[in-house]
Design goal:
The chain is mainly α. The chain has helices at about 5-40, 50-70, 80-85, 85-120, 135, 140-155. The model has no long low-confidence stretch (mean pLDDT about 90).
Length: about 160
Protein backbone atom coordinates (compact mmCIF):
# COMPACT_ATOMS: atom_id res chain seq x y z
CA UNK A 1 0.00 0.00 0.00
CA UNK A 2 1.41 3.37 -1.00
CA UNK A 3 1.75 6.37 1.31
CA UNK A 4 -0.97 8.13 -0.67
CA UNK A 5 -3.38 5.24 -0.11
CA UNK A 6 -2.54 5.16 3.60
CA UNK A 7 -3.21 8.89 3.85
CA UNK A 8 -6.56 8.53 2.06
CA UNK A 9 -7.64 5.62 4.26
CA UNK A 10 -6.69 7.40 7.47
CA UNK A 11 -8.54 10.50 6.28
CA UNK A 12 -11.64 8.40 5.55
CA UNK A 13 -11.46 6.94 9.08
CA UNK A 14 -11.06 10.48 10.45
CA UNK A 15 -14.14 11.57 8.50
CA UNK A 16 -16.17 8.66 9.89
CA UNK A 17 -15.08 9.54 13.44
CA UNK A 18 -15.96 13.19 12.77
CA UNK A 19 -19.45 12.24 11.60
CA UNK A 20 -20.04 9.93 14.58
CA UNK A 21 -18.98 12.72 16.92
CA UNK A 22 -21.30 15.16 15.14
CA UNK A 23 -24.22 12.75 15.64
CA UNK A 24 -23.21 12.33 19.29
CA UNK A 25 -23.18 16.11 19.74
CA UNK A 26 -26.64 16.39 18.19
CA UNK A 27 -27.86 13.57 20.45
CA UNK A 28 -26.47 15.38 23.50
CA UNK A 29 -28.13 18.63 22.45
CA UNK A 30 -31.44 16.81 21.90
CA UNK A 31 -31.15 15.13 25.31
CA UNK A 32 -30.51 18.51 26.89
CA UNK A 33 -33.44 20.10 25.04
CA UNK A 34 -35.82 17.28 26.03
CA UNK A 35 -34.65 17.49 29.62
CA UNK A 36 -35.09 21.29 29.78
CA UNK A 37 -38.58 21.07 28.24
CA UNK A 38 -39.54 18.29 30.62
CA UNK A 39 -38.16 20.14 33.61
CA UNK A 40 -39.92 23.44 32.88
CA UNK A 41 -43.11 22.25 31.21
CA UNK A 42 -43.92 19.05 33.09
CA UNK A 43 -41.72 19.24 36.19
CA UNK A 44 -40.05 15.98 35.10
CA UNK A 45 -36.39 15.44 34.33
CA UNK A 46 -34.37 12.58 32.91
CA UNK A 47 -32.16 11.21 35.67
CA UNK A 48 -28.51 11.13 34.75
CA UNK A 49 -28.89 13.18 31.59
CA UNK A 50 -26.29 15.68 32.78
CA UNK A 51 -23.78 12.86 33.30
CA UNK A 52 -24.51 11.44 29.86
CA UNK A 53 -24.07 14.86 28.24
CA UNK A 54 -20.71 15.29 29.97
CA UNK A 55 -19.62 11.82 28.86
CA UNK A 56 -20.54 12.66 25.28
CA UNK A 57 -18.43 15.83 25.49
CA UNK A 58 -15.48 13.86 26.88
CA UNK A 59 -15.65 11.48 23.91
CA UNK A 60 -15.96 14.41 21.51
CA UNK A 61 -12.92 16.12 23.04
CA UNK A 62 -10.58 13.14 22.95
CA UNK A 63 -11.62 11.51 19.68
CA UNK A 64 -11.96 14.93 18.08
CA UNK A 65 -8.43 15.66 19.28
CA UNK A 66 -7.22 12.63 17.35
CA UNK A 67 -8.92 13.87 14.17
CA UNK A 68 -7.48 17.35 14.64
CA UNK A 69 -4.02 15.84 15.24
CA UNK A 70 -4.27 13.83 12.04
CA UNK A 71 -5.24 16.91 10.06
CA UNK A 72 -2.65 19.13 11.74
CA UNK A 73 -5.29 21.69 12.64
CA UNK A 74 -4.66 22.00 16.37
CA UNK A 75 -4.35 25.42 17.94
CA UNK A 76 -0.82 26.74 17.88
CA UNK A 77 0.96 29.73 19.31
CA UNK A 78 3.18 30.23 16.29
CA UNK A 79 3.38 33.99 15.73
CA UNK A 80 7.10 34.03 16.53
CA UNK A 81 7.71 30.72 14.80
CA UNK A 82 6.34 32.08 11.53
CA UNK A 83 9.06 34.75 11.53
CA UNK A 84 11.84 32.22 12.14
CA UNK A 85 13.96 30.70 9.36
CA UNK A 86 12.73 27.38 7.90
CA UNK A 87 15.47 25.40 9.69
CA UNK A 88 14.33 26.72 13.08
CA UNK A 89 10.70 25.97 12.19
CA UNK A 90 11.62 22.38 11.34
CA UNK A 91 13.47 21.91 14.63
CA UNK A 92 10.63 23.42 16.68
CA UNK A 93 8.02 21.36 14.80
CA UNK A 94 10.06 18.20 15.39
CA UNK A 95 10.38 19.00 19.11
CA UNK A 96 6.66 19.80 19.29
CA UNK A 97 5.73 16.47 17.69
CA UNK A 98 8.19 14.54 19.85
CA UNK A 99 7.04 16.09 23.14
CA UNK A 100 3.37 15.78 22.20
CA UNK A 101 3.82 12.12 21.23
CA UNK A 102 5.75 11.19 24.38
CA UNK A 103 3.34 12.98 26.72
CA UNK A 104 0.25 11.59 24.94
CA UNK A 105 1.69 8.05 25.01
CA UNK A 106 2.52 8.34 28.71
CA UNK A 107 -0.92 9.68 29.64
CA UNK A 108 -2.60 7.06 27.41
CA UNK A 109 -0.72 4.28 29.22
CA UNK A 110 -1.59 5.68 32.66
CA UNK A 111 -5.22 6.02 31.53
CA UNK A 112 -5.30 2.40 30.37
CA UNK A 113 -4.13 1.32 33.83
CA UNK A 114 -6.80 3.50 35.44
CA UNK A 115 -9.57 2.23 33.16
CA UNK A 116 -8.57 -1.37 33.95
CA UNK A 117 -8.73 -0.58 37.66
CA UNK A 118 -12.20 1.00 37.58
CA UNK A 119 -13.45 -1.77 35.28
CA UNK A 120 -12.24 -4.36 37.80
CA UNK A 121 -13.89 -2.47 40.64
CA UNK A 122 -17.18 -2.27 38.72
CA UNK A 123 -17.47 1.46 39.38
CA UNK A 124 -20.62 3.16 38.08
CA UNK A 125 -21.62 6.81 37.79
CA UNK A 126 -23.65 8.34 40.60
CA UNK A 127 -26.95 9.07 38.87
CA UNK A 128 -27.05 7.36 35.46
CA UNK A 129 -25.44 4.22 36.91
CA UNK A 130 -23.31 3.82 33.77
CA UNK A 131 -20.04 1.92 34.12
CA UNK A 132 -17.41 4.64 34.56
CA UNK A 133 -14.85 2.78 32.47
CA UNK A 134 -16.89 3.74 29.39
CA UNK A 135 -16.38 7.53 29.56
CA UNK A 136 -12.86 7.10 30.93
CA UNK A 137 -11.96 4.92 27.92
CA UNK A 138 -12.16 8.01 25.74
CA UNK A 139 -8.89 9.26 27.22
CA UNK A 140 -6.60 6.32 26.34
CA UNK A 141 -8.35 5.71 23.02
CA UNK A 142 -8.19 9.34 21.94
CA UNK A 143 -4.58 9.80 23.06
CA UNK A 144 -3.49 6.54 21.42
CA UNK A 145 -5.12 7.66 18.19
CA UNK A 146 -3.32 11.01 18.54
CA UNK A 147 0.03 9.24 18.85
CA UNK A 148 -0.79 7.07 15.82
CA UNK A 149 -1.81 10.21 13.91
CA UNK A 150 1.48 11.91 14.81
CA UNK A 151 3.49 8.88 13.70
CA UNK A 152 1.58 8.58 10.44
CA UNK A 153 1.89 12.31 9.74
CA UNK A 154 5.65 12.09 10.28
CA UNK A 155 5.92 8.97 8.10
CA UNK A 156 3.86 10.57 5.35
CA UNK A 157 5.75 13.84 5.61
CA UNK A 158 2.65 15.91 6.35
CA UNK A 159 3.24 19.37 7.73
CA UNK A 160 0.89 21.29 10.04
CA UNK A 161 -1.72 23.26 8.15
CA UNK A 162 -0.96 26.96 8.38
CA UNK A 163 -4.07 28.99 7.74
CA UNK A 164 -3.67 32.67 7.08
CA UNK A 165 -6.33 35.09 8.17
Amino acid sequence: MSKTEVGKRVESVASVIERILAVALIAGICLNFINVCGRYLADVSIGGSDEIEIYILIWIAFLGGAVVSWRGQHLRMDVLLETAPPSVRRIVTFAEVLVTGVVAAFVAWQSILYVRRIYTLGAVSDIAQLPTWIPHSAVPLGLTLMVIALILRAWLGRRPIRETV
